[in-house]
Design brief:
The chain is of the alpha+beta class. The relative contact order is 0.07.
Length: 1270
């Protein structure tokens, strides 16, 4: 048998194996439960490790020792019967156990779906009773009144038999096998279709489930009785090893014990058959055999699992596959690598951004094979070279030094939350035992130097080295893929240095002379004529500015090595301001846009050098006296006490409720804290070390300094509720005992939350990656793309004709035989035209599509304050416009008549029935368009009142400048192309995605934007708060925030205390009783709908108001499912995006909206069929939207009835599990369920995503391995 190489695998199919198939795999029957002979320490013949069945233990050596050596390869020993082969075959060769009685596969009756019960239409519990010999099932009622498949208890069976009734009933696997063999799948399909037509809802759900199984069985020619086994496979022995320990004992894999139980029970049953044992004994032994096979296949699913001697359940075949330590996640997706090291990291302040220091000994070990090769070139033989490497000589160190210059290494800091946690560096050999890294790369790695460790890896091949150098080098990854701002910026001491250097001393002197040369300024500073913060007049070009000595030095130093003498640096203006953390980020970002990556790297290294240099020479340090307590503090606290006393007095007199008292007291102390913070900071001098540290953004915050020198303020209790007694002391004075214990609540909760949050955020990231990993940039523009046939190897799986029927051609297509055009540009391809493509052997065709976009508006906090969270410009830059954007946005709605001629359309005109675009926004209205509008019964259109200015044309890139321009014109809504509306199959196109945020250039085809999106959302997850915080009393509603809110949105759950949405346009009537509020909506036709709200729900409408469909009638969060039903996909998706963005923004985390759009795109992938029309779908079936649309196009052209469907939303867990790829789903969660379903339906995995490709050992279908043709 010739095996395919891993890279040749293009698709993988999984089907249920029959017992005959299992026998074909097998190299022999295992009949003994023994493993090794304790006398000879060699495998027992016909046992679980038999060499005759599984191959020799020692390569090319038979069991008896008669044949030894590779020259006998392929021969079978005449004495012991062992084939002479390498011992590695013991990892590949299967055996089998021939069962004395049929056994039912546990996955098919003890799973989320009981497939056997479903096919036989017998309740799951009854099926189990039959399998475990508790009940009989009637397999042939003959002429009695009994029903076929009727379940009989033992006493009922005996009664009927004693009455002389002639019928056949059976128990166990034999009975199930008999029933399954009698199933007529075609008849079953017809019955299920009948149920679909006129059944109740529950029957319809079961019918859809049954139809999908029956279709799978029929399509793949799978027999239902294959779920019952008469032979079971024995996996290769090297996959269930027996390891010798000291003292002659063996450590055995659990599977061997489980197999032994099966073999022993099976042999016992065979003996009982031979001696014609009584039926009761046979039944008991058959039941025990069924249980033994159950334990072998899935021990964890049984009520009483088989335990080991240490009282732990034995690991069965299912346990080997599933979970974190299972075959998928541990071995196939989590391979270990060679050529790696690990060490503590320390700072290397003199290293460039793309360098790392590696200890010499570590480098020698990493480069060992290369060093041996280099030494062999110097004339040393292999053995001598190895000796030299063990005891290094100068030649060895020189070889290591030379090699390290030609290679880059990868550094990885765990946890690897995003792609910047693994970066490439040029190695520099150092003394010592720790790895050195540039302090600039601490932020992307989230590393600090308090004992963090990093792993180091050496890419071996030339292609791996090239990729690492070009794509992964730290100098090429300075922008964040999440929000496009620089990450490799100076921090802490470096910021303190630049801040101190650029401060101005207002009280200091001004140097009288005009200066114009940085070297002159530095000379005067070094001589002591000028001080660092002195004001000077400085000439730049023809302009004289007032600046400081420090700022001139700063501007001079950061330019070093960037510009050549001849090069113009006028674009990089003199920076005349205090350089704090924000300012540094702004400088780097703007510099990157103007001068590109290479020069920005030099700028960053210069900023680092100047920052360290001046933070050192400044000699800034903190002492206890730097923590200054303001004089006003006592007075502010005293006033707070007075106000509190007054509030408590009002409460005691009954003027306030408990809730109001609590709220007022909390407000008082929050106000006191704010006043003290102002007092603390007004008490500092400009050059106070503590103030400089906080104000520059180097370390610490205003809150921390207030707690040190003002007062600690209010603390949160263990539930998150604020404790009303403030901590009036500060950290410099020290706390009282009561205050100390009040503050421990928050500290302890913080510790617990951090631990819980890390796990939750990690799990969120994992689910996001599983949802999005197959989303890759596949083509340039989905509005105009090239379609190819789908191939598996050389075989065509889907013809070109099938993929293009009903599509609009973007080109003329000629008949290659006579060069006549048979498809014209703009033609909607008919079935006949499409079939000609196959007939004439045409390999591809370009088609065009109308691509919609989504409306982007500024994201606001909502509620009473309409404070902007994210501006419109921040959301649209770097994306493509989905329509022409005009500056004059005053539009009016007019009747279609000659009056509107020559005006410009202010909105797209869409046919209500088909959704087809009749005219596009920005079109000039002519007589032809007016005729067209009348033909479609459109009587009103929106036009611009005055001449609009075109800001950007459709399908053009919106730059930052244009985005700001759009915002400055006061445009409230912009339609941009989005991944949500992209029509690329299993991916997105360049135009719908926009720019690559990590380079600010157009995204490349092959970029794995799905994984980038998942990492960008998941990585900051640990920064989000875990639980709900609330200041309210008993009745106040908790608002879900932070990580739980993200979880709620991505799971598409109905929120607690959800808002009420209008499902009808019309007038409002509100009535209130003791328990509830009723909102009645009445439309113009008199149709009514009633909406119920709790009594305490705050309504946004009153009687007499007019509302439209989708208007929000009360406070609370919206239910995405409800929103989807009422307003459609684009609106629901946009709501999710806005809400997720709000949560991250509230915690100060920036994430570009398109990452969230990519995840939401996958959440809306499925639809539910409402009316299948003339298609092959079933009512109630859940299918891929793209599949339905494609089949509808074909059906429509044939003049048949298309399928009607409704969009549905799935949470990310459901989305990942319902992936088209069974390998991806099985390696995510619920492995047994996914594999059982895939096998019975005969699913094919086309290996479109990354996980599937890695599992089968292929390169991922993305990046440098992008296969454009396919």
């Amino acid at each position: 048998m010739s095996f395919l190489g891993n890279r040749d695998i293009e698709a993988l199919k999984i089907v249920l194996a029959s017992s005959d198939e299992i026998r074909k795999w097998s190299h022999g029957e295992v009949t003994k439960g023994e493993t090794y002979s304790y006398r000879t320490y060699s495998p027992e013949l016909n046992g679980l490790f038999c060499e005759r069945i599984f191959g020799p233990v020692h390569s090319y050596q038979c069991h008896c020792g008669k044949l030894k050596g590779i020259q006998y390869k392929g021969l079978v020993c005449s004495t012991c019967g062992v084939e002479i082969l390498p011992s590695s075959v013991r990892r590949e060769r299967f055996g089998h156990i021939e069962l004395a009685s049929p056994v039912v596969h546990i996955w098919y009756f003890k799973n989320n779906i009981n497939y056997i019960g479903l096919l036989l239409d017998v309740p799951a519990k009854e099926i189990e009773k039959v399998i475990y010999f508790d009940s009989f099932v009637v397999v042939d009622p003959k002429k009695t009144k009994l029903r076929f498949k009727q379940i009989l208890k033992d006493d009922e069976y005996r009664t009927y038999k004693s009455e002389g009734l002639d019928f056949a009933a059976k128990k166990g696997g034999e009975a199930i096998k008999d029933l399954l063999e009698r199933i007529d799948l075609n008849k079953l399909k017809e019955q299920a279709l009948e149920k679909l037509k006129g059944g109740v809802k529950q029957d319809k759900i079961i019918a859809v489930r049954l139809l999908s199984v029956v279709e799978g069985l029929l399509t793949n020619n799978i027999k239902p009785e294959d779920m019952v086994l008469t032979a079971i496979p024995v996996i290769p022995p090297d996959l269930r090893p027996l390891v010798p320990l000291e003292g002659g004992k063996y450590a055995s894999d659990d599977l061997n014990e489980l197999y032994r139980r099966v073999i022993n029970r099976n042999n016992r049953l065979k003996k009982l058959f031979e001696v014609n044992a009584p039926d009761i004994m046979l039944q008991n032994e058959k039941r025990m055999l069924q249980e033994a096979v159950d334990a072998l296949f899935d021990n964890g699913r049984r009520p009483y699992p088989v335990m080991s001697s240490t009282r732990k359940p034995l690991r069965s075949l299912t346990d080997i596959l599933k979970g974190k330590e299972g075959r998928f996640r541990e071995n196939l997706l989590g391979k270990r690598v060679d050529y790696s090291g690990r060490a503590v990291i320390v700072v290397g302040p003199d290293l460039k951004i793309d360098q790392c220091g590696i200890p010499k000994e570590m480098a020698l070990e990493l480069f060992k094979p290369f060093v041996i090769y280099e030494l062999s070139k110097l004339g040393f033989n292999k053995r001598r070279a190895k000796e030299l490497v063990e005891n290094p000589t100068p030649e060895v160190w020189k070889a290591v030094e030379d090699l390290s210059k030609n290679y880059v290494v990868l550094l990885n800091r765990a946890p690897t939350l995003h792609r910047l946690s693994i970066q490439a560096f040029k190695p520099v050999l150092i003394e010592g035992k720790a790895i050195q890294i540039s302090p600039l790369v601490c932020t992307p790695f989230n590393a600090d130097f308090d004992g963090d460790q990093m792993a180091i890896h050496l890419p071996l091949s030339i292609s791996a080295q090239t990729e690492a150098r070009l794509l992964m080098l730290s100098a090429h990854n300075i922008l964040s893929p999440a929000h496009s701002e620089p990450l490799d910026t100076p921090v802490q001491d470096m910021i303190l240095g630049t801040y101190y250097l650029t401060l101005i001393d207002e009280k200091g002197r001004t140097y009288p002379k005009l200066l114009n040369c940085p070297y002159e300024v530095e000379l005067l500073y070094e001589k002591g004529v000028l001080r660092l913060h002195d004001k000077i007049r400085y000439l730049i070009g023809k302009e004289v500015i007032e600046t400081t000595v420090g700022r001139v030095i700063f501007n001079s130093r950061i330019r070093e090595g960037i510009f050549d003498e001849n090069e113009e640096d006028s674009k990089f203006k003199f920076i005349n301001k205090v350089i704090d953390k924000k300012e540094v980020g702004k400088i780097v970002s703007e510099f990157y846009d103007k001068f590109g990556l290479v020069k920005t790297d030099i700028l960053l290294d210069n900023l680092k050098e100047v920052g360290f240099s001046y933070s050192t020479s400044a000699g800034i340090s903190i002492g206890i006296d730097d923590v200054k307590i303001p004089d006003k503090r006592t007075e502010i606290v005293r006033k707070g006490d007075e106000k509190t006393a007054k509030i408590n007095k009002n409460y005691e007199e009954g003027l306030l409720s408990e809730e109001d008292r609590y709220k007022k007291i909390v407000d008082v102390w929050q106000d006191v804290a704010k006043k003290i913070e102002v007092a603390v900071f007004s008490n500092f001098e400009k050059f106070d070390p503590l103030y400089m540290m906080a104000n520059s953004g180097a370390r610490g915050s205003a809150t921390q300094i207030t707690q040190m020198s003002g007062m600690r303020g209010l603390m949160a209790g263990p539930t998150g509720k604020i404790i009303e007694f403030p901590i009036k002391s500060n950290l410099r004075e020290g706390l009282t005992v009561l205050e100390y214990f009040l503050s421990t609540h928050g500290a302890r909760k913080g510790q617990a939350d951090t631990a819980l949050k890390t796990a939750d955020a990690g799990y969120l990231t994992r689910r996001l990656v599983d949802v999005a990993h197959e989303i890759i940039v596949k083509e340039d523009d989905c509005a105009r793309r090239t379609i190819y046939p789908t191939k598996i190897g050389e075989e065509i799986a889907e013809n070109l004709s099938h993929k293009v029927i009903g599509r609009v051609s973007a080109e003329d297509v000629e008949n290659p035989n006579n060069n006549t055009v048979f498809i014209h540009k703009g033609d909607t391809l008919s079935v006949e035209q499409a079939e000609f493509l196959d007939k004439f052997g045409i390999k591809s065709i370009q088609i065009e599509d109308h691509i919609d976009g989504i409306d982007i508006e500024a994201i606001t906090e909502g509620g009473s304050t309409d404070k902007s969270v994210l501006s419109i410009a921040d959301q649209i830059w770097g994306r493509y416009a989905a329509e022409d954007i005009f500056a004059s946005q005053t539009a009016s709605s007019l009747k279609v008549s000659k009056k509107v001629l020559e005006n410009i359309l202010a909105d797209n005109i869409i046919d209500k029935d088909t959704g087809e675009v009749i005219a596009t926004k920005g079109d000039k209205i002519d007589s032809g368009l007016i005729k067209k509008l009348k033909k479609f019964n459109i009587d009103k259109i929106d036009i611009y009142e005055n001449d609009p200015v075109l800001l950007i044309k459709r399908n053009q890139l919106i730059t930052k400048e244009i985005a700001n321009k759009i915002e400055s014109f006061g445009i409230k809504k912009v339609k941009v192309r989005s991944p949500i509306t992209c029509k690329t199959d299993h991916g997105v196109c360049v135009k719908c995605y926009g720019i690559d945020l990590s380079s600010r250039k157009e995204v490349k085809v092959g970029e794995s934007v799905g994984v980038v999106a998942a990492e960008s959302i998941g990585e900051p997850g640990t920064q989000l708060t875990l639980r709900t915080f609330h200041t309210g009393g008993i009745a106040a509603e908790d608002i879900t925030q932070g990580l739980p809110r993200i979880e709620e949105l991505f799971s598409a759950r109905s929120p607690k205390g959800k808002a009420i949405i209008a499902s009808l346009s019309g007038k409002v009537e509100v009535s209130i009783d003791k328990v509830k509020q009723t909102i009645t909506l009445i439309n113009s036709r008199g149709e009514k709908t009633k909406l119920i709200a709790p009594r305490d729900k705050k309504l946004k409408v009153k009687t007499g108001d007019y509302v439209r469909v989708g208007d929000i009638l009360s406070d609370g969060s919206l239910d995405p499912r409800e929103l989807l039903g009422i307003k459609g996909i684009n609106f629901a998706a946009r709501y999710l995006v806005q809400e997720i963005e709000k949560v991250y923004k509230s915690q100060g985390v920036d994430i570009n909206v398109k990452h969230i759009e990519i995840i939401t795109k996958r959440m809306f992938d499925k639809v539910q069929i409402q009316n299948p029309g003339d298609t092959q779908f079933y009512e109630g079936e859940t299918v891929n939207r793209d599949d339905v649309l494609r089949i509808n196009r074909i059906i429509q052209l044939e003049g048949k009835m298309i399928a009607k469907f409704r969009p549905i939303i799935n949470g990310i867990t459901r989305t990942a599990l319902s992936s088209d790829s069974f390998l991806s789903a099985a390696s995510f969660q619920e492995t047994p369920r996914v594999l059982a379903e895939a096998a019975i339906k005969g699913k094919i995995d086309f290996l479109r995503g990354m996980k599937e490709s890695i599992i089968v050992g292929k390169k991922i279908p993305a990046g440098t391995n992008m296969d454009f043709e396919k």
